[in-house]
């Protein structure tokens, strides 16, 4: 019985993907020994770890790319919710996926090197921390402007115009922006 269980466990491990999340911005590199940062992966977006080497991990990122400006991977196919952003003219090897009828942008995946950080198996705790930061900091001077008051595309600018008046640390800015966009009035799941 124990042998059967260990075989079962072994097979499950081999087949299950190592999907993780970061609660901070993660630097991206074109090769394992590069020091030049070519892009950033933003918090609360899931990605797959394919392998680890030294201080880096090789990851697979999925999302949508506007073919007219292929330096940003978005969370869904219409809203400017950023999963990863790259410096212009970086040579990126996107694998295109089959598009569905209503995809406005290309559905892609990208394999790339990332700095190794503390990653998390799910986004629950980081999202509740983001909500706490928002509620505790943004309702001090005026009533809280709720998540649903603005559209996904509007939140980044609204947040940035106010964040310097709060105690929200720089490392948490993108965490709160992503939280607000993903809970906004017109948020569309991917
Ligand atoms: C230190 C006080 C203070 C804090 C903290 C603060 N605000 Fe404000 N907020 C203001 C004031 C004052 C205004 C009025 C317009 C102005 O001064 O820009 C305002 C206006 C606004 C408006 C209305 C803008 C418009 O054009 O209608 C929104 C939305 C808003 N704040 C969101 C936020 C969010 C989100 C946060 C947290 C990141 C936040 N505020 C934190 C003081 C604050």
Automatic annotation (TrEMBL):
InterPro entries documented for this protein: Cyt_c-like_dom_sf (IPR036909)
Entry's Gene Ontology molecular function annotations: electron transfer activity; heme binding
Protein's name in the database: Cytochrome C
């Amino acid at each position: 019985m124990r042998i059967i269980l260990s075989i079962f466990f072994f097979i499950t491990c081999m087949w299950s993907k190592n999907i993780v999340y970061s609660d901070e911005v993660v630097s991206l590199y074109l090769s394992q020994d590069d020091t030049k940062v070519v892009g950033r992966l933003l918090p609360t977006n899931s990605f797959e770890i394919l392998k680890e080497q030294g201080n880096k991990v090789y990851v697979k990122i999925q999302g949508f790319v506007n073919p007219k400006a292929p330096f940003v991977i978005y969370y869904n196919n219409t809203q400017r919710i950023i999963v990863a952003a790259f410096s212009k003219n970086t040579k990126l090897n996107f694998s295109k996926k089959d598009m569905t009828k209503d995809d406005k942008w290309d559905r892609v995946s990208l394999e790339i090197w990332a700095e190794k950080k503390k990653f998390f198996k799910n986004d629950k705790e980081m999202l509740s921390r983001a909500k706490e930061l928002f509620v505790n900091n943004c309702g001090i001077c005026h009533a809280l402007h709720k998540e649903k008051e603005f559209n996904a595309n509007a939140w980044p600018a609204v947040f940035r115009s106010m964040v310097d008046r709060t105690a929200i640390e720089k490392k948490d800015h993108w965490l709160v922006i992503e939280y607000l966009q993903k809970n906004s009035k017109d948020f569309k799941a991917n």
